Amino acid sequence: xxxxxxxxxxxxxxxxxxxPTHAMSNQNTPPGPQQQRxxxxxxxxxxxxxxxxxxxxxxxxxxxxVIALLAYNFYQYFTNSNAPANTSVSYSFFLQQLSNNNVDTxxxxxxxxxxxxxxxxTYPAGSSTKVTNYQTYEIGGNDPTxxxxxxxxxxxxxxxxxxxxxxWLMIIVEFVLPxxxxxxxxxxxxxxxxxxxxxxxxxxxxxxxxxxxxxxSTTFNDVAGVDEAKADLVEIVDFLKSPQKFQRLGGRxxxxxxxxxxxxxxxxxxxxxxxxxxxxxxxxxxGSEFVEVLVGVGASRVRDLFDQAKRASPSIIFIDEIDAVxxxxxxxxxxxxxxxxxxxxxxxxxxxxxxxQAVVVIAATNRPDGLDQAxxxxxxxxxxVTVDRPDWKGRMxxxxxxxRSVPLSSDVDLQTLARLTPGMVGADLANLxxxxxxxxxxxxxxxxxxxNFEEALDKIQLGAERPLVLTxxxxxxxxxxxxxxxxxxxxxxxxxxxxxxTIVPRGQALGVTMATPLDDRYNYSKEYLFTxxxxxxxxxxxxxxxxxxxxxxxxxDFQQATGIARQMVTRWGMSERVGLISFSDRPSPFTGxxxxxxxxxxxxxxxxxxEEVHRIIEDAYSKVKTLLSTHRATLDRIxxxxxxxxxxxxxxxxxxxxxTGAIDAATAHxxxxxxxxxx
Length: 679
Ligand code: ADP
Ligand code: ZN
Ligand code: MG
Fold this sequence. Notes:
By secondary structure, this protein is α/β, with parallel strands linked by helices. The protein contains 22 helices and 15 strands. It has helices at about 50-80, 90-100, 145-150, 165-200, 225-240, 245, 265-280, 285-290, 295-310, 325, 335-350, 390-400, 415-420, 425-440, 450-460, 470-490, 525-545, 555-570, 605-630, 630-645, 650-660, 665-679, and strands at about 1-5, 85-90, 105-110, 110-120, 130-135, 155-160, 210, 255-260, 280-285, 315-320, 360-365, 385, 500, 510-515, 645-650.
């Protein structure tokens, strides 16, 4: 690519030199009515919602019971105090009265004697109190002679069996029960107060979207290119359809499933499809929503979400972007208590299912590395389902799905489109179909043509064409520069096939050479990487060889070349001098893997690495210059044709190469076939 100067614009399209990297992913939240909770009525508690409607009844009954008990106790108290009170006397005093024949009645129970004296007696001696109704102190055990003495003195008496049980009952009814009830009512009111306070601000309210009758209609037929993930999820669908079947034999229910994959690969779509296939309600919430506002809110939202789902069991809970809450605890310097609380609550809820509750929790992330280990423990998100970028067959199927409702012209070849779009994910492809349809509509066409698709693809990969007036000189330089890239790509054995060269300015690029791999590459040979470096240096090489002067347009080219060379040395062990050691985790331009930061090697090693990178670049550059000098005529011709046509496709390029004798027709043919067989 030739980069516009002097504006330092962010590079983008140069990547398209080999791999379109525009990820047009739109994070769709599932459409669906946001269920509003009814206003008014008793505040449904976040804590105990299932008991809420019963709550006020229980409260009323409790209050009535307490009042009744208190009334009873008061009654007892007053009736007792109105009746002549028994005065406690010693047992010996009683016996004395007995032998004096002064005892009128006696009731023997529980080791005490209660009754009346015939003549009131002064007791204790010397006081002014006269006792008629007496009750002896407990004598501890029965006096075996008491009965005969009572008979001897003609006292009408009554002996009752000990009423231990009755006594306990009285203690419970009169004392324990009211206490418990009073405490219960107190607790109830305090909690109610706390909740209504929460209600004022309405913060803890879950925003889970409940699709009640209108459950997701998405099915597995709406998802393509992720067959392995689908196969993994079929089991979950079966389980949700008939949980009893699985629980009957005591099997452990799949509880948590972690969907891992790059953005736009269809994780949300898959989760919804599981709900749609199983015909169960789908509750979804995104991790960032949990940690949004105030401390403590995230945790209560988690609680709310799970409560809602449990009530609707069997059901699905979907937590998107779980990395927003699920990052390892205590790793960062600025601890985020809110997030940790939310995470802890999530862990609690994951453990808090009862065996009959058929709720499956599906979470999605594109960064599984940093997730807290506790989340991945058995019983939590112990199943990991990888949702990969689709291969070309998958891309074709996805294109088919999204063009179901789009009238396609007969020249549209989805297979060709699929092969032109390596690296694109489902969301990008959905976007591609949409863009093509919009372009067709803008041109008042009845059907979407292949040309519309190609235009849409260019627009997505390179940014929209933009009108820009370049001077004649500039155009010449850009044409030579891009011609250089193209020629290196065309003449190098290990290069990705050059599919297009253009000097039409798009996005930030003044020109672009596209070399698109025939299919997704998962592994890179040393030769391929070296060729990529040569390809990147082709632009500058051509300026040098054909114009004798160099420009600033190659900035991105150098970044790319250096990046690849450095990784060959430090990551992929491709330098004999430095050896087979991985020195760094710098992000790869191909895989986008994470960077771990710091250097872990000595200054000498650093120097050796720099020298090796330098050597590789120098080596590649000198090979480029040799190549371009040898095929100088072809280079000039490509530049000329570019000036004339602005765009050259693979066929036109091949024709030029044959015409100038750079390759013969037979080789060109062989190359074409050889290339095709790569897939
Ligand atoms: P993710 O959640 O992985 O970021 P989404 O599920 O939100 O991706 O995908 C966004 C949109 O892209 C979907 O609504 C769908 O239209 C389309 N899409 C993504 N992946 C696929 C796929 N595998 N098959 C069909 N369509 C897909
Ligand atoms: Zn360039
Ligand atoms: Mg998503």
